[in-house]
Design goal:
Layout lengths: L12 H9 L2 H25 L4 H17 L2 H4 L7 H19 L16 H9 L8 H27 L3 H7 L10 H8 L3 H24 L8 H11 L14
Helix pairs in contact: 1-2, 2-3, 2-7, 7-8, 7-10, 7-11, 9-10
């Protein structure tokens, strides 16, 4: 088991469990965390399906409002498979129902369960590659990037908590294959080149541990981990495994 797996006790499918069994407060906190992790991939999926900016924002907000109000997440069963597939499937059904009711129903009045900046969302969407073949593929790519961003944020927090924020900032490019010359970095950080190489190796290893733990948290069957990593690798650039630091599921 990855050493970082325990840090993801409140992510993804465990959030769904919180919604099924927890108090209103616990359910709300779980929903908000899940919303933060998934709102943009769903927004991008809606935009690629032809919705305008406002329509996509409304549909994404409405999806979470409907799921909270009608127990959609509470009805989700882990045995259905990967949370990524469950969410995009449920969202497609929501969009279909929304389209059917568009002529007879207008949204309004109720409080949204999810708030996000539509301008920021649209700026992110404008950066999406035009050659992405469809909404589902765009969702997968956005989902994968969101996972990588979350892992990077968690890793940064770990280093800052140890007082090593400057080291993380200096080596962060290693995670994207954009490492700066280590001789220059070592001189700037007041360490040896050998020590810096070791630090970079450990950074990449810990990054992969956190990534694997986070992806595993989206699966009901841990045996699917390698397949899910392969699917995400096909959707977005994931870091290559270092043979010496690769962890088994």
């Amino acid at each position: 088991m990855d050493s970082g797996a325990g840090q993801f006790a409140t992510t993804r499918w465990s959030l769904v469990r919180s919604l099924r069994a927890g108090s209103d407060e616990a359910a709300r906190a779980a929903l908000e965390e899940l919303c933060r992790a998934t709102w943009y991939p769903l927004y991008a999926c809606a935009r690629r399906r032809g919705l305008t900016r406002d329509e996509a924002a409304d549909a994404t907000q409405g999806f979470f409002a409907e799921f909270l109000g009608h127990g959609g997440f509470a009805r989700a069963e882990e045995g259905r498979g990967r949370l990524r597939a469950f969410l995009v499937g449920a969202f497609k059904k929501h969009l279909a129902k929304r389209a059917e009711a568009a002529a007879a129903r207008k949204r309004g009045g109720g409080a949204h369960t999810l708030s996000f900046d539509a301008e920021v969302a649209e700026e992110r969407y404008a950066l999406e590659p035009v050659y992405t073949t469809g909404p589902e593929q765009l969702f997968d790519a956005a989902w994968g990037r969101a996972l990588l961003e979350e892992v990077t944020a968690r890793l940064r927090s770990e280093y800052e908590a140890r007082g090593e924020g400057a080291l993380f900032a200096a080596l962060e490019g290693e995670l994207a294959g954009e490492a700066a010359p280590q001789v220059e970095l070592a001189r700037r950080l007041g360490t040896s080149e050998g020590a810096l190489k070791t630090a970079a190796y450990r950074l990449r290893g810990r990054y992969r541990e956190l990534l694997r733990a986070l992806v595993r948290a989206t699966l009901d069957d841990p045996a699917e981990l390698e397949d899910e990593l392969a699917a995400l690798r096909a959707a977005v650039a994931l870091p290559a495994e270092d043979p010496e630091s690769a962890e088994s599921p």
